Amino acid sequence: MRPVSTTPTALVLIDIQEGFKHPTHWGESRSTPEFELNVEKILGAFREYNDTTRSDQSPERLPALIIHVHHHSTSPASALHPSHYLEESSTPSVAPLSFAAPVASEPVVIKNFNSAFVKTQLESMLRAVGIRQLVLVGLTTDHCVSTTTRMAANLQVLGDDGGPDGNGHGVHGVVLVRDAIATFERGGYAGETVHAVHLASLEGEFAEVVSADSVLTMLGQGPSC
Q: Per the domain annotation, does 171 fall within a domain?
């Protein structure tokens, strides 16, 4: 991962929505028990970094773009269909989870497909401001996170930085935060197994895979800071 202060960077939060709390729809086994806490920490650190950058008004320190991607399924059976609400609640299932709710200055991209780039404005938003590094967190590892990662690399949305740099770091400029991404059991395989296998498949070919602590350290809020 390259320094956010000198690399035009976007934090993209994928599908962190109420519908994923459904007690039976997704399965009982979910990976990454630290997911919620790490997403909250990373989002807070990016916001604090931006606040400091804007108050310092230093031309040598670049602000980061924070984008929320929310899934609105076209299938009425999906727990993420806009017509659904949480059980015995007025909260829509497509609403963001509280720890990852956007603030007014953070754009929200609505998607209907696994990829955050299909029939959305995400690609044009990234290209318009010359983003050269994507930091991805969210749900789920093997579906929307994986599909978005692969398309980010294949579409070369990061311009000239959209390819491997030869040393195993910054592959395609896409960074996956392993412990701020999660998925559920699939086909009899536990959520942790599905999560690990899909990250292993993406690492090196489509993205660099890092820990939440390494991102926080880069932003000046890690364990050693």
A: yes
Q: Are 122 and 14 in contact (CB under 8 A)?
A: no
Residue 169: pLDDT above 70?
no
- The owner of tokens 């929200």 is 108
Instruction: Identify the residue whose tokens are 């070369």.
Output: 156
What residue has token string 């009899």?
188
Number of structural domains the chain divides into: 1
88 domain-assigned: yes
The answer to whether 12 and 135 are in contact (CB under 8 A) is: yes
**What are the tokens at 53?**
């950058």
Q: Please check whether residue 7 is in contact with residue 62, taking contact to mean a CB–CB distance below 8 angstroms.
A: yes
The encoded tokens of residue 105 equal 């200055």
Residue 15 lies in a domain: yes
Q: Which pLDDT tens digit goes with each residue over 77-114?
A: 998 999 999 888 899 999 999 999 999 999 999 999 99
Structural domain for 94, as ranges: 9-218
Read off φ and ψ for residue 21, nearest 5 degrees.
Answer: -90, 0
Q: What is the pLDDT of residues 108-146, one digit of tens each?
A: 999 999 999 999 999 999 999 999 999 999 999 999 999
In single-letter form, the type of residue at position 57 comes to Q
